[in-house]
C-alpha cells in the first residue's frame, strides 16, 4: 500500500520565516542610538534610546552609538559579580 501523497507546500512556513528575517529588531540596529542602563544589582544593559526604560533600571550613559555604549559597558562593568560578593573581599 502506498502512502498518501503529501499536502502541497503553500509556502506558509517559508513566508513566515522571510517575514521574520526582514522585521527589524530594535536591539540589532547598529545605526540606532542606545543608552546604557544599570539596575540595583549594578548589572549593565544596552537599551535602545527610543524605548522606555524598564522599571528598576537607571540610564547611566548615552544616548550614543552602539559602539560607544559597548565601550562604556566594557570599561565600567569589569566585575560581573553581585555587589554583595564584591564587598565580601
From TrEMBL:
Residue ranges with Basic and acidic residues bias: 16-28
A Pfam family: MbtH
Regions crossing the membrane: none
Ranges for domain MbtH-like: 25-75
Domain of life from the UniProt record: Bacteria
GO BP annotation list: siderophore biosynthetic process
UniProt protein name: MbtH domain-containing protein
Region annotation (Disordered) ranges: 1-28
GO CC annotations, alphabetized: cytosol
Amino acid at each position: 500500500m502506498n502512502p498518501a501523497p503529501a499536502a502541497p507546500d503553500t509556502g506558509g512556513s517559508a513566508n513566515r520565516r522571510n517575514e521574520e528575517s526582514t522585521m527589524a529588531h530594535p536591539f540589532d540596529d547598529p545605526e540606532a542610538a542606545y543608552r546604557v542602563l544599570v539596575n540595583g544589582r549594578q548589572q549593565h544593559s544596552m537599551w535602545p534610546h527610543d524605548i522606555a526604560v524598564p522599571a528598576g533600571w537607571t540610564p547611566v550613559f548615552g544616548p550614543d552609538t552602539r559602539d560607544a555604549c559597548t565601550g562604556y559597558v566594557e570599561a565600567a562593568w569589569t566585575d560581573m559579580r553581585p555587589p554583595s560578593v564584591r564587598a565580601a573581599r
